[in-house]
Amino acid sequence: MRLGIGKLINAPELIKPRCKTCSAAPEIQSSRHLFVDLPKLEPQLVAWHGTVDQEWTANARQITHSWIRDGLKPRCITRDLTWGTPVPLEGFKEKVFYVWYDAPIGYISITANYTDEWEKWWKRSEHDVKLYMFMGKDNVPFHSVIFPSCLLGTGEEYTLVNVLGATEYLNYEDLKFSKSRGTGVFGDQAAETGIEADIWRFYLMYVRPESQDTVFSWDDFQTKNNSELLNNLGNFVHRALSFCAATFDGCVQPVDELTETDRQLIGLVDKEMREFQECLSKTRLRDGVRSLLTISRLGNQYIQLCQPWTLKDQRARAGAINAIAVNVAALIAVLLAPYMPTVSERLQQQLNVKLTAIPERFVALVKPGHKLGEPKPLFSRMEGDRVAELKTKYAGKDAASGASAGGPKEDAKKAGAKDAKKQGAKDAAKGTAKDAAAEGKQKEKPAGKGDKKK
Predict the structure, then answer these.
(1) Among candidates 90, 371, 110, which has minimal Cα distance to 245?
(2) Pick from 317, 297, 301: which is nearest to 309 by CA?
(3) Which of 178, 227, 247, 265 has the most CB atoms lying inside 10 A of its own CB?
């Protein structure tokens, strides 16, 4: 059983334990289990860990160091459950593997099911493979200690994780996400909202909890969609492409000579391109989004400063300004691909190009004489009425039992998040025993995967 992050306790060590469903005290029984001898593997793990952890996020390093610092303990890898992966060993066939021992092995077996050449990825050889893993911080020990130890214990040259990116927690409107209480939006529900998947991807990357806990807020979601996507990025791209369509019949014009204003823009875009590359290589995905949005903001400022629509007697200069803006839009199209692949593809269709690689600096991806496609708006406005409706729908039982369905922020301002949680607990205590039992079953079932006695 885990207590917090990295803290292991055995079930018999619990003080006055009781069943969540019936409140009865559990009976301790003897059971034979299989363990991974982590202390025996510790020297190999420590030696390997010292070669890779500098590319890990700070919390991943800290959690792993705490496990190693306290000395590794034998780890139970079997459970007395009726579901799971059966243990193929005499005397243990009535048991199943602990899910976090079994699941990482699936990374390899899934690859093997996909291709007979799976060893190119999972066996260290002449193939240059760099393994990245992304997860919440509560899953770090399984991927930084237990799984690597098991691979090292085989004595074979398996690929071990090189970069481990762990996040802090994402909360929901000043509360915690909770499936049992219906608080928050989960993957299957996100599709039901009618909001495009790429918009979800953008916002979740924008608020990605890379260094501290962050909050999903419907009001902020609406603001970022309308300001950053619609008014910033979408507005710039549409201005550049529609001006080319209206003024030059969609044909990109030559740039015979760069002005100081042009050079300043290119220099600033170069800087953000380098920052974008650095962010992605260091798994700072949230900051990468901000660099991308800065480039579109620079493009908007450039168009507004140069005002090509006023240069009716300087058609060549107007065309050069537009060509530079179109090429900034092309850079944005390829930068969008890791974050918003569908939007990236739509923008490339409007540009009538196929871009596959992210350049390291500003380059002209669209050449003079190139014919653009039809410009169309990339994004739509997120309306307040719809946002309020979705906020109410996914507020969960906490809102129904006293917290404001439409404004956990308002509740927090009035009473503080701590008081709101106390009120939720008080209301839950007033429920019937039947409801409490049903809720207990819902909460206990997932815990059975890994927290049953060892």
Answers:
(1) 371
(2) 317
(3) 265
Query: Which of 66, 63, 277, 57 lies closest to 167, judged by CA?
Result: 57
Looking at the whole model, is its pTM more than 0.90? no
**pLDDT one-digit tens code per residue, 178-231:** 887 888 888 888 999 999 999 999 999 999 999 999 999 999 999 999 999 999
Question: Which residues have CB under 8 Å from 159's CB, separation 6+?
Answer: 121, 122, 123, 124, 129, 131
Q: Beta partners for 76?
A: 35
With a cut of 70, say whether residue 427 has pLDDT above it: no
Report the alpha-carbon distance of residue 266 to residue 363 in Å, rounded: 9
